Amino acid sequence: MTNSQRFSYQQINQKIGEAGYLPFLPITLTYNNNSLTVSGLLDSGATVNVLPYHQGKQLGLEWEKQTISMNLTGNLANYESRAVLLTGKINNFHPVNLAFAWTKAENISLILGQVNFFLEFDICFYRSQLLFEVKPKIKS
Amino acid sequence: METITILVESEVAQLYREVTPKQQQKIQPLLNNSLKEILVNELTENKNNLNIIPNEDYPIYSPLNAFEAADTLLKLLKENKQND
Question: Is the bond into A71 cis (omega within 30 degrees of 0)?
């Protein structure tokens, strides 16, 4: 029995045909019994996971209570961000701890990056078929 | 092609059986594309609450080379693991 699941790329722009698909993964985030199911971009070029401000608020996070400040890069360097720890669950996989840079930026999607989403899951992209496969890491 | 794309899967199969082998050869590429589209659409529709709106702009703020931030998050995860 294989412990992996396949997901389809999401079409986010119909005007540009096949280029308009991106690997968005449905994930349920939990913080202190508050849960939120959102769609996270699998971004292997992102060094860290990024949580948009409004999603953090929906989860009940309070900005003032997050004491670990951090500096992001690129466009996100213009916004304050703080480190937060959430639980992430994908379909019937076991929940995992996911650390996020919670940014004050509003108009972005959830970003699932190297630390630590890609440390927890192995991902295989089948871009030509508009599919990707997600598999929990093998525990040593 | 538009006619084919709006047919449901069973109707496509029925249509396919009714045409001659030569016609089948002609429409095969169209069917492949249509079935692929149907499957992709079904998979897309099955996802609830994805917060993705077609044709909406989603600027990607990918934090490339944010190593200091990564180090901070790794320390947080390590501390959390030690406390468990």
Answer: no
